[in-house]
Design brief:
Elements: E1 2-4, E2 22-27, E3 30-36, E4 42-45, H1 47-50, E5 56-62, E6 65-69, E7 71-76, E8 90-94, E9 117-122, E10 127-128, E11 132-133, E12 144-149, E13 152-153, H2 154-161, E14 174-178, H3 188-193, E15 205-207, E16 215-218, E17 221-230, E18 252-257, H4 258-272, E19 286-288, E20 294-302, E21 314-322, E22 335-340, E23 346-354, E24 363-373, E25 383-391
Parallel strand pairs: 19-25
Antiparallel strand pairs: 1-15, 2-3, 2-5, 3-4, 4-8, 5-6, 7-8, 9-12, 9-16, 10-11, 13-14, 14-18, 16-17, 17-18, 20-23, 21-22, 21-24, 24-25
């Protein structure tokens, strides 16, 4: 759960108030947090939360209580380095699609995170900035949300401190925040790096035990994955309000930088989806809606041409659009950027179709593809559009 500056309960996230896709991840008797991704079948979290556990489960809050979601498998980043908190990411695949009401999230893909305000969400301990986090009460883990701002990177922090920091963050891979109360005395990055910033006011908070793996959102996209918190001191100077690592004012926290790791995340999700089409002739343009839950229907994007360099990334933006089908009722909207990484010439985009028992006519929706980078559409074409049909299977009669 996130530690906050003042009354921790004012920042509690209740079912129906947003962030319904931030889940609790339980492994080996310990728990952390995670984020349900687009497609509703995988959760992004930290590798150290799972740590090769034989038993992993996911719990989702609903208005009627906490719901367990069975897990089919998980994957840790192959280069996970727990000693240096590097490559601390994991993907957890659900055995069945998450409920429709659970918010899905995309990845934040730009490298402009520094200076931007973020929303931190997780199931960690609560507390107040002056005296740190508190022991968990009888209510158990509760989801909270607070704000902060990305200030620097882990390797820049290491460069400023040198041997004063015993771990070595990989270059550009970690994002750092500090916990401010509006005073210079507790501005850790101002004190040690000259990044003078007294915070964003009452909304500011920090992570605490139980938040590991939880998201840092920019514009509702996952920009960071919670990794660790620490307290800095040098030459007798300490901005930590309590001089204990307890989520108090003056401490800092680090997040895995999702934009740095988007290739591993994207390609892991693609490899795990055995139903995605790989040839145009395998693409289905219609799907029976089913009675409940969601099913996936796909669009296949292909690149025909030559890259400028072998390691060039190619990308397009895409977004669903209503036809006769309505987003949130008949299908779940998606809007993201598809990247073809070196060696790739195609990738599928999945859209979830919502099942129900209501007789209705067949309905359609669109996927618009625009802004090609690294290649072009046909001459004079600014946007590509695909259409899919949701076939009613509940006995509608014209």
């Amino acid at each position: 759960m996130v530690t906050v500056t003042r009354d921790p309960d004012r920042y509690r996230v209740l079912p129906g108030e947003g962030h319904e896709g931030v889940v609790q991840v339980v492994a080996g008797g310990f728990y952390g947090s995670g984020t349900l991704l687009y497609g509703g079948r995988a959760v992004l979290t930290s590798a150290h939360v799972i740590d090769d556990s034989d038993s992993v489960s996911v719990r989702l809050d609903t208005s009627e209580g906490r719901l367990g979601l069975p897990v089919s498998r998980y994957a840790l980043h192959p280069d996970h380095d727990i000693d240096n908190a590097n490559h601390d990411l994991a993907l957890v695949w659900l055995a069945a699609p998450a409920p429709v009401f659970a918010q899905r999230s995309g990845l934040y893909r730009e490298y402009d995170e520094l200076g931007q305000e973020v929303t931190l969400v997780g199931y960690g301990l609560t507390g107040a900035g002056l005296d740190g986090h508190r022991p968990q009460n009888s209510e158990g883990p509760v989801k909270h949300a607070v704000g902060n701002r990305f200030d620097t990177t882990g390797d820049a922090l290491k460069a400023a401190f040198g041997s004063g920091i015993s771990w070595s963050p990989a270059r550009d891979s970690q994002l750092i925040i500090d916990f401010d109360d509006g005073s210079d005395a507790h501005d850790a990055l101002g004190m040690f790096m000259g990044i003078d910033d007294n915070g964003i006011g009452e909304a500011e908070g920090l992570i605490a035990p139980g938040d590991s793996g939880g998201p840092a959102f920019i514009d509702d996209k996952v920009a960071g994955v919670t990794t660790y918190a620490t307290s800095l001191s040098r030459n007798g100077q300490s901005p930590d309000a309590t001089d204990e690592l307890d989520g108090s004012f003056g401490e800092i926290a680090a997040f895995q930088r999702v934009s740095h790791y988007q290739q591993w995340i994207d390609q892991s999700l693609r490899m795990a989806d055995s139903n995605a089409p790989s040839r145009p002739e395998d693409v289905e343009t219609s799907i029976r809606e089913g009675d409940d839950g969601t099913q996936l229907i796909y669009f296949l994007l292909e690149f025909h041409g030559e890259r400028d360099t072998p390691d060039q990334w190619l990308s397009v933006d895409y977004a669903t659009r209503d036809g006769t089908a309505t987003a949130g009722e008949d299908y779940l909207a998606v809007a993201d950027t598809l990247i073809l990484y070196p060696g790739e010439t195609q990738a599928a985009i999945a859209v979830e179709v919502i099942g129900d028992n209501e007789p209705e006519p067949d309905e359609t929706f669109f996927l618009d593809v625009s802004n090609p980078i690294g290649g072009d559409f046909s001459a004079g074409v600014a946007k590509l559009t695909g259409i899919r049909t949701i076939v009613d299977d509940d006995g509608w009669i014209a």
